[in-house]
Amino acid sequence: MSEETPVSSSDDTPVPPKKRGVPEGLWLKCPGCGSSVYKKEVEQRLNVCPKCEHHFYVSAIDRIAQVLDEGTFEPMNESLRPVDPLEFSDRRKYADRLVGEQKRTGLTDAAMTGTGMVRARRVAFAVTDSAFIMGSMGSVVGERLTRLIERATDDGLPLIIISASGGGARMHEGILSLMQMAKVSAALARYDESGGLFISVLTNPTMGGVAASFASLGDLVFAEPKALIGFAGPRTIKATIGIELPEGFQTSEFLLEHGYIDRIVTRKHLKSEIARAIDYCGK
């Protein structure tokens, strides 16, 4: 008897067949177009919607795999770990939050740094991850970025930083976090004086102190389509000053039109565009 054939109970009342449900996790709802899309197809397209080209979240580890040549990434400064100098606590102790984020994401902090190859071109490379306390910049994130920039300066390497930080400076560390904006920017100034090439890639979201410091200082600034980029978010601005913002305000497309970024680059073309830019600039 097939699974679809009705069966009878002892009182001859027909029992409806069991329905075969769709296993969970096979489909995603796209925030861009609202369509249900097959998860495996999205992953094969580097986490891009096949219908509207919406760029889904990508982890730092996946970014490394997408941009760098396979097996070439050499991480730096992973031994640097965040601490809780202010013994900060809101709904949860910061020390406990750090442990929870590390277990949940598999990262030690919101930035991964190191060296690697982009189509056989050696680069200094960093990526921030919005999954770790919204990719906010604490003292360890700032120190890792600064050491990477100094390494790029000493070795004459092109510098690539992919930003996905919706949290800006990390409030849990107070001024120790805020000072990272100046520290990283100063390291970039020295790197620029040495003749280095800095390519900054902005993804969704790039906000707060990250957008106000190193993410905006690239010799070339690329951005993914429809990424949210700015200092304070649209809802915060509207609630604070009560002004209706222009349509598309703080998106990649709006900022390209107003000269804030140099080019919008889709995820599948990013690796080639970075390699092309390195060659064009003679680095």
Briefly say what this structure is.
By secondary structure, the chain is α/β, with parallel strands linked by helices. The chain has helices at residues 39-44, 60-67, 94-105, 139-155, 175-193, 208-211, 234-241, 252-257, 267-280; strands at 7-8, 14-15, 27-29, 36-38, 74-75, 111-118, 121-128, 159-165, 198-206, 220-223, 263-264.
CATH architecture assignment name of the largest domain: Alpha-Beta Complex
Helix content: 25-40%
Which of globular, elongated, flat, extended, rod-shaped describes the shape? globular
Query: What's the overall average pLDDT, rounded?
Result: 92
Q: Could you describe the largest sheet, including whether it forms a barrel?
A: 7 strands, mixed
- The parts where pLDDT drops under 50 for at least 5 residues are 1-5
> What is the string of SSEs from the N terminus onward?
EEEEHHEHEEHEHEHEHHEH
N- and C-termini, Cα separation: 70 Å
**CATH homologous superfamily title of the largest domain:** 2-enoyl-CoA Hydratase, Chain A, domain 1
Cross-sheet strand order for the largest sheet: 5-6-7-8-9-10-11
Calculate Rg over CA atoms. 23 Å
Overall structural class, as computed from helix and strand content, comes to alpha/beta
Question: Main traits of this protein?
Answer:
single chain, 283 residues, alpha/beta, 2-enoyl-CoA Hydratase, Chain A, domain 1, 2 domains, 7-stranded mixed sheet, two-stranded antiparallel ribbon, 9 helices, 11 strands, 33% helix, disordered N terminus
